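INTERNAL AUDIT FORM
Audit reference: QA-55
Scope: verify that the stored structure record matches its stored sequence.
Auditor: D.O.
Record contents follow.
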Amino acid sequence: MAMNRLRESLVADSHDVEVLSSDAKTDWTGFQQGKAEQMLGKVLWRAGLDHLHTRGSFRLANSDWLESFDVIHLHNLHAGFFNYLALPLLARRKPVVWTLHDMWAFTGHCGYSMECARWKTGCGKCPHLHTYPYMHRDASALEWRLKRWSYDQSQLNITAPSRWLAEQARSSPLLGKHPVLHIPYSIDTQIWKPAPRAEARQRFGLPADAIVLLAVANDLTEPRKGGKQLLDILQGLPTAVKEKCVLLVAGKGNSGPFETSGVRVFQAGYLETERDRSLLYSAADLMLFTSMADNLPLVLMEAMACELPVVAFDVGGVSDLVRDHESGSLVAPFDTGRYAESLLHLLAEADLRQAMGQKGRQLMASEFSQKREASAFLDLYARAQESHVGAA
């Protein structure tokens, strides 16, 4: 989604952009995998090595199709179609800009290391082997070394959307030799804006007079998303408050566990359109964000652009968006008691919630505009072209 928003900004500024992925419709189809490649993938996956069977990345690096482009901008490379060992070849052909969306690029496999710091010393003995992206066997030390070899042979221009992720990347033994620039995501505040509350609540069948608490995540049953913490917070609320509130849950996951919270639950499901998601945020009084690790959550940007204040744990890049006492409340990880106190305080202060919502929208418009993001990347593309050392 972040990649597509950047593409839209660049195209609107009259730049030609081609999106290439395993399912993108382009003139180049080299990512398609034959039966032999698929079989090799199964073997390597059982050995704990994912992505290394994919030859499309090498085909891309050697293709004539690549000649028509000035810069290659990489995004999420752990989606099962790209082989990071092809980076040296690719970087010799064209200047490479790589936007990190999580920690995967500099760990032995995981997207977020949580409390583990083994990524600073070489990984191995992974305590989060089955977190996304899932690793069948512990080959994290080998993957860490293979990544180091690949990056050492490559000229890379790294960007990170949050200050937190930029700091992590700069402290990585794998990426430390490459420049790391902080360029935040952007949001179009002409699309993401508050809608009339009555219309929004009618869309989701919500009671007009209730206090609506919103929780959004792809799957709140995933431990990293903090569903357990959210349930603890809700269960600990006073009965009188629970009776006034409803919980609106959006995403693909199951909202069933929250039925035991004592708060009435409404399930919005996964919403495809920007219009529906804007109505979702406009229907709520407060957004509850309990993620235990995150980069620069797009759902927070969307909510804030729709003037919805947020209560969140102070993890990752969340503080880039939620300014404590200004656009919401930040709570020390993972103090559910203090979180509940912040929630109760805001529930009792309607004027404060309104002021925080307005401040959040102002922040999105001033610091996270599409023009600002596009300009930063265009400057980086120009510098990458000037400094690029191609194949001899």
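Auditor finding: record pair retrieved intact. The beta strands are 72-74, 96-99, 156-160, 180-182, 211-216, 245-250, 264-269, 286-289, 310-313, 328-331.
Action required: none
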